[in-house]
Amino acid sequence: xxxxxxxxxxxxxxxxxxxDPTRREDLQVQGLKDSIEYLLDVIEAEVQLIGAxxxxxxxxxxxxxxxxxxxxxxxxxxxxxxxxxxxMPFKRQVVEAQNQSGGVESFYANVxxxxxxxxxxxxxxxxxxxxxxxxxxxxxDLGVNVVEDLEELGMDVAFKRYVAGGHxxxxxxxxxxxxxxxxxxxxx
Length: 188
Known about the structure:
The chain is built from 6 helices and 4 strands, in the order αβαβααβαβα. A 4-stranded parallel sheet has the order 1-2-3-4, with helices on both faces. Helix 1 crosses helix 2 and helix 3 packs across helix 4.
């Protein structure tokens, strides 16, 4: 049940405000926890089939927000991250945890209640962040902030900013950029 809209919505987690995702972060905890725990199991199974370096997480909006946390929470060094029109929930807490002795593991255990996270230094993971300036749901400034946050967490980030297109995948240039990213970083 969406807290803001008071109706059932298809969403990865509840959120109070996309203008300021830090408002009422408590609403995001359970959905993020459930999503991360479920998808970490999926990642584990897929890694056995194709290997970690060939796995890239891709998401739009909330899916991208979850993908960022999956990349950080996975015990594997995955091949990369592609995200569109997103933001990073709990960014301040994650960055602070990364710089403390417990690392990101402490954030996932203490804030989200996700156990078994084995973070650590994975080296620079390539990431492609894309955002439209006219996105009507997630402000482009949140996308810019994601770039800075991911870089602070040690990722190698490319940012593509598009003028018009709303809250979706930029076509054809966005799709071309995704293919080029995969060719350069994963399909080597």
